[in-house]
Specification:
By secondary structure, the chain is an all-alpha fold. It contains nine helices and no strands. Helix 1 crosses helix 6 (about 105-115) and helix 3 packs parallel to helix 7 (about 120-140).
Length: about 190
């Protein structure tokens, strides 16, 4: 009996979602295709019916994760009644909630260190998605992309450091200082 129309696309989407969650939590190198497929509720034998290789999946997972992050942060901005709306985005992005939930968080702090050692295909997709994220941040902040780049860099760097330490007070202090500095950037 044949699969219903759209089945293959739906399965591919489940694999990409599983990969994005796994990569956000554990990075690229330490995650295997069988682990990703298990996370999607599938056996690893079906992977190559959807992707040529893991690198292609990494690229697709980056696309998916940035779309997911932009959509979520747009909702955060839309729910903010006070101006500037970017403050709500900064407050969420640099919150302990976001810091502690890597599996659903922004993929930029999770993968930026590894991407530099990835294939050109992955780096090209990551670069494009990073540019989209800069544009999003710049638009919400109502600043040019040069300031938007600095703002996003500040937010990502702050989150990387806050996630890296095992001292909760130090981690929280990074988040507090990062929020303050990020908000100062958009006042100019």
């Amino acid at each position: 009996m044949p699969y219903p129309e759209g089945h293959k696309l739906k399965v591919r989407g489940k694999i990409i979602e599983s990969a994005a969650q796994a990569f956000r939590t554990n990075g690229i190198r330490d995650i295997s295709v069988p682990f990703i497929m298990k996370g999607a509720g599938l056996t690893h034998g079906g992977f190559y019916a959807h992707f040529d290789n893991k690198e292609q999946l990494v690229a697709e997972a980056c696309r998916y994760a940035i779309n997911d992050t932009i959509s979520f942060l747009q909702d955060v901005a839309d729910q903010e009644n006070a101006a500037p709306k970017i403050n709500a985005v900064i407050d969420y992005y640099l919150s302990s909630y976001h810091r502690d939930r890597t599996e659903m968080g922004c993929i930029l702090p999770a993968l930026s260190g590894e991407i530099s050692r990835s294939s050109d295909e992955v780096r090209q997709v990551f670069t494009h998605e990073l540019e989209r994220m800069i544009d999003f941040i710049s638009n919400v902040a109502k600043v040019d992309t040069a300031i938007g780049s600095v703002l996003l860099s500040t937010m990502v760097g702050t989150l990387v450091l806050a996630r890296s330490v095992n001292d909760s007070k130090l981690s929280d202090s990074f988040l507090t200082a990062g929020k303050q500095h990020a908000k100062e950037l958009i006042k100019t």
